[in-house]
């Protein structure tokens, strides 16, 4: 079966991208994959995502499914643009939220230097076996080198909803060369 867009019939499903519940009646994206835990042929499972989470985290599947959508998708062009960026820059879907370093022990995955305590860092995740697994951090100043683009703020803002506008402006300024 192909991937699908549908209205959530209940609020029981959690988004695979952000881990938050998908509200009843909210439009969601379902990525259908082979189920490695089921016996038989053509047995599939569906991983559910908020639309923005799907565009940010699973851009290839999202782009492939949008033309076949039977429902109206608000802000579809913006989501497609972000998904296309994710396809063009292979590390961009790994970008999670931004936070201040709680200690000085983490090492940047780009420059291999320690990330100083209380400095801004961007969390990274890898997609493994249907789950997004935490995979380290990069300095905010190393983001353009690591991701090969400076267009990371929509993802950072989405996955760090608690960021103030001042914090977001500081992070954005640090990501610009």
- Per CATH, the class of the largest domain reads Alpha Beta
CATH hierarchy: architecture of the largest domain: 2-Layer Sandwich
Main sheet: strand order? 1-2-3
At the fourth level of CATH, the homologous superfamily of the largest domain is Zinc finger, PARP-type
Topology as a string of helices (H) and strands (E):
EEEHHHEEEHHH
Large-scale geometry: globular
- Any idea how many domains? 2
Radius of gyration: 17 Å
Q: Mean of the pLDDT scores?
A: 94
N- to C-terminal distance: 44 Å
Strand segment count? 6
Helix content: 25-40%
If you consult CATH, what is the topology of the largest domain?
first zn-finger domain of poly(adp-ribose) polymerase-1
Strand content: 15-25%
The total of helices stands at: 6
Biggest β-sheet strands, sense, barrel: 3 strands, antiparallel
Low-confidence stretches: none
Sheet/helix structural class: alpha+beta
């Amino acid at each position: 079966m192909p991937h699908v867009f549908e209205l959530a019939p209940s609020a029981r499903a959690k988004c695979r991208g952000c881990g938050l519940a998908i509200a009843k009646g909210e439009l969601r994206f379902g990525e259908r994959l082979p189920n490695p835990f089921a016996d038989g042929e053509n047995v599939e499972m569906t991983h559910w995502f908020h639309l923005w989470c799907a565009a940010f985290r699973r851009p290839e599947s999202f782009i492939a499914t949008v033309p076949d959508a039977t429902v109206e998708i608000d802000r579809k062009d913006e989501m497609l643009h972000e998904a296309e960026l994710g396809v063009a820059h292979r590390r961009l879907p790994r970008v999670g939220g931004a936070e201040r370093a709680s200690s000085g022990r983490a090492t940047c995955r780009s420059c291999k230097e320690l990330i100083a305590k209380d400095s801004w860092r961007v969390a990274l995740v890898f997609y493994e076996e249907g789950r997004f697994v935490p995979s380290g951090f990069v300095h905010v100043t190393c983001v353009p080198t690591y991701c090969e683009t400076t267009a990371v703020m929509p993802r950072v803002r989405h996955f760090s909803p608690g960021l103030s506008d001042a914090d977001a402006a500081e992070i954005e300024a640090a990501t610009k060369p």
